[in-house]
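Next up, a chain.

===
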Amino acid sequence: MSSAPPVRSVVRAIELLRALNRQPVSTVDFLHDQTRIPKPSIIRMMQTLEGCGLVKHAPQHGAYFLTAGVQSLSYGYHSEPMVVEAAAPFLDALTLRIKWPVAIAMLENFAMVVRYSTIPLSPLALKHSTLNSRLSLVGRALGRAYLAFCSPEQQDALLQVLADSTSPEDELAKDIKAMASVLSEVRSQGFAMRDPSIVPASNTLAVPVFDNHGVACSIGLTYFSSTMKPAQVVERHLSEMLDVSHAIGERLKALQSDGARKAPLPHAKPRARMPSSRSAVPIAGDQVPHSGELEESA
């Protein structure tokens, strides 16, 4: 017997879900490029998927991302959309309160990649968007905040790659003692700042976010260097950055432990104590592939 022709609307819905799974946040233009489905149809289908609890609309970005509801499909849900879903409400609220843009970044291929940013909500942003920008683990605040608090084994592996990188922003990784000193200072302070020689017009204050498995990502607040000194930013905003980090981490832990439908969105809580400092581990090992050139980003 010949099989019945596929139901076109079902095929299109699956194509859209697959396209959404390719990156954490997707615009209608991206979905159209990936699927060739007409944009009006994409919008209607996104509204349907949102009504089913599988997709969420980020109006300020004109974009969509998967929600934890896709776990019910047992496919297509991974850590990045979970982090975006957990972090977005807290980051949005912070920017609406303090006006400066904040972003969350995750490790990908020996660099940090911005997965969510509140630039559309900020009147003080230098750029129109930093979504999916790649940031150095060595020179950027979001990278240092992650690298300083990841496990010794992961840190050593990353530093071996970064020491062989051709990117100017990774140059410090070639100096073992200097790199160890930077990471030790970040661990002892509980926060990271960008190398001041990179994009001097601005700077970023970043802190790590921890889930059930350790450091999951980092969040950063970017400000104009002409308006505040680093010490002023720390005094004014470090406490609330740590509170937001703690709130995101608690949300992630709840999602990981109980499943999204059982994990209510918590209010921001007082921050937890930072993990205790550990001594830096010397870098050793064979040559490894280059990490690749990093894109410019705030």
